[in-house]
Amino acid sequence: MMLKRQTEGSVICASCGVLVGVNDDTCYNCGRRNPGLWGFGPALRRLGQDLGFVPLVMGATITLYALSLLLSGSRIQGMLSPSTEVLFLLGASGAVPVFQFGRWWTVLTAGWLHAGALHILFNVLWIRQIAPGVAELYGAGRMIIIYTVAGVVGFAVSSTAGMYLPRLPILGGAAFSVGASAPIFGLLGALVYYGRRTGSSHIGQAGLQYALFLGLFGIIFPGVDNWAHAGGFVGGLATSVVLDPLKRERVDHLIMALACLALTLLALITSFVTALPVLMR
Question: What is the model's pTM?
Fold first, then answer.
């Protein structure tokens, strides 16, 4: 089995890579508590550097996009865009869902939904490109935390701007907003902070260049939620400061990452359950 637990023998410490006993309380080399991750360390390593998060988020977003098209039926719009009603019911964020309907949990779910074929294609490609590198630099647990918090901050900022700021070109907030670009900008913010914190200027410059390129794209093309991008970048940068890439990843980071995924799943279920009465009319 993929997640079979090892109960005896030696394993590689999840932080420093030296051999330790599978049941050791601490690593003799780096001091990490529970270096064998309760015997699941070898199984988790088989999932990859990102602990399987990249294929998880790619598979889940594609599945939710297909579901949104199926539920839209004849209401599918150009470029294979799901209907706004279906996106709203499945967890779109923005001023209308958050402030007018009290669907505050959508700041967690909106990053897993997409508004069109090109929208999801580009975001999935960016996730595949950036997330593994952030996982390598920060550790998979901290990468997941950054991704989640950046999405929450990005959609919270966008929703607030859409509700309380004037409807201005480029700077106007969103009435409805979906897409993984907010957490993607958070990952870019993490790269920028890593470069500044560690002195790896090429990593920081790469993150900043990507962010500027995508930001310019949002300014040029209409319909892009620039507030979500800016909020996601700031959220990712701030979270990276708290997590500090110069310190080793700890077991509690993995626990927090699992909590982030559990809360996101609960929010998605809540969105779907509350949508059922309307969809079954």
Answer: 0.85
